[in-house]
Amino acid sequence: AAKAAGRGRYRRFTADLDTNAHKRRSIEVDLHNAVKNGEFELYFQPLFNLAKNRFSAFEALIRWNHPKKGLVSPVDFIPVAEDTGLIVPIGEWVLKEACRQAATWPEDIRVAVNFSTVQFAQSGLVNMVFQTLATSGLAPDRLEIEITESLFLENTGSVREVLHGLKNVGVRIALDDFGTGFSSLSYLRKFPFDKIKIDRSFIIELLQEDEAGAVVKAITDLAAALHMETTAEGVEEPEQVEALRAFGCTTLQGYLFSKPIPASEAAKLVNGEAAAELRA
Ligand code: C2E
Ligand code: MG
Ligand code: MG
Ligand code: MG
């Protein structure tokens, strides 16, 4: 009986592999068309600044409106885009569109854009960012580029050169999903980060485990000592806000404030706030 059950498990396992491989292959084919036909859209999620008591930035998050499947999550297609190299044209489109939208917002609102590690292998990256900013008219310090710790698995010499090149253009650099990778504290001193984004997993634990607070506080203290800002990702509960405020976290992001929203709604949100301030 045990043997039969084992065989059943094995069959299920190989069947899963088949569907996964099939799923991936179909995403790959469709992704080429998506780039050609412009099936992507950017959503924007606001970041709440605790000191200013208002939204101070939006993170651009890509959405794929698949003609048959509907909305496909970036979690499902970004890895495929990275493996196929399609992340390069997709990333360029994301940056252009994010800058174009941000240029219509009030000047004290920034835009954050996720960059894949694969994009850093492109020799013209710094120049592409420079050109895109120039074309959109967006001030460089209104753009924050989000990278992840996986970047440090790459050749650190050239990664460092590109990061410094981006700093020279005048953009900000944020370290995304901090604490989930193979974080080495030495990177925090070697690279010119403006911000650390504390991963959602730590924020969830904040209300569940006593020690989670100690980790989050240690990260915010360290960031402050290195003159870096901190954003807490995935804030969903009011109790988390009070804890994060006490720790000295600079900005908060999460469903408690807003889910990612279409560009038109983001523009309404910030322009509406600006209008309210003018009236006051
Ligand atoms: P990320 O950069 O860490 O973005 C934050 C993700 O957390 C977003 O998922 C956002 O919708 C989600 N999130 C925000 N607040 C909450 C919350 O309170 N609760 C929960 N459960 N989730 C929350 P999304 O939009 O599905 O994106 C997933 C990931 O895909 C991103 O993680 C990023 O790594 C990648 N991604 C998205 N857009 C792009 C892009 O334009 N370029 C690249 N290279 N990667 C992207
Ligand atoms: Mg991000
Ligand atoms: Mg993140
Ligand atoms: Mg995250």
From TrEMBL:
GO biological process: signal transduction
Coiled coil: none
Domain EAL span(s) in chain numbering: 24-274
GO terms for cellular component: membrane
Record's protein name: EAL domain-containing protein
Biological source species: Croceibacterium salegens
